[in-house]
Amino acid sequence: MTDDEPVETFYSEERWQNWIDRIREEDLDPEEEDSARLLLNLQDDAAIAVAKVLTAHEDGRIGDDRAAEEINDVREIVLEEVAIDDEDKLMLIDGVQTSLVPVFYAAEEFVIGGPVEEGTVEEYLRAAADAEREEDLDAALGYVVQAGTLVIDGAELDVQIAEDIDYGLVSEWINGLDSLQSALADPEVVDEE
Residues with Cβ < 8 Å from 4, sequence gap 6 or more? Predict the structure, then answer.
């Protein structure tokens, strides 16, 4: 199959917008299970789209360029500024968007260069936590992305590590990698209803 042939759509603006509309209409309380599940489903749905791109790439249905382009398309849809008047809901959506940032970069990195060759998921995540403590957020993100390439390659992410480090960007990013790990294990579509 060439990159010119039509292939499935991996994600769409409409799909993301359906989730945002649903969040706009709901009374959200992150302490309540239904609200927390809705936000997690929003995050998992985007991670599943990335996992499907990676699977199509691995299966040879799409080439490197198309895979990178598809991942970029999902990233642009998901990270676009959301128009909701409710500040609390905006913060919750922003948390989901933040969690997904390393998912997109790790997927792109994996498509372009494969997994990092040395180190473990835990080593990279601990290095990321150290970098965050030193307020070097670019380095922290880089380490999380490298850990993400290993997760995509099949290495196990133990989310317990997120509980061992201070709450912050790195713990949010680990949350995103956890969604990606789940999506790669079982890339079933999350039901929007």
Answer: none
Contacts of 40 (CB under 8 A, 6+ apart): 179
Please state the φ and ψ torsions of residue 12, each to the nearest 5 degrees. Answer: -140, 155
CB burial string 77-109: b at 16+ within 10 A, e below: bbeeebeeeeeebeebbeebbebbbbbbbbbbb
- Would you state the pLDDT for residue 189? 55
Task: Confirm if 84 and 20 have CB atoms less than 8 A apart.
Answer: yes
8 Å CB contact between 121 and 155: yes
Handedness of CA 128, 129, 130, 134 (dihedral sign): positive
**Contact residues for 120 (Cβ-Cβ < 8 A; gap 6+):** 150, 155
| Cα–Cα nearest to 104, from 55, 49, 184 | 49
Contact 139, 185 (CB under 8 A): no
Could you read off the pLDDT of 151-191 as tens digits, one per residue?
Answer: 999 999 998 888 889 899 999 999 999 999 999 997 665 55
Q: How confident is the model at residue 22 (pLDDT cuts 50, 70, 90)?
A: very high
* pTM of this prediction exceeds 0.70: yes
Q: For residues 26 and 37, is the Cβ–Cβ distance under 8 A?
A: no
Domain boundaries, the chain: 13-185
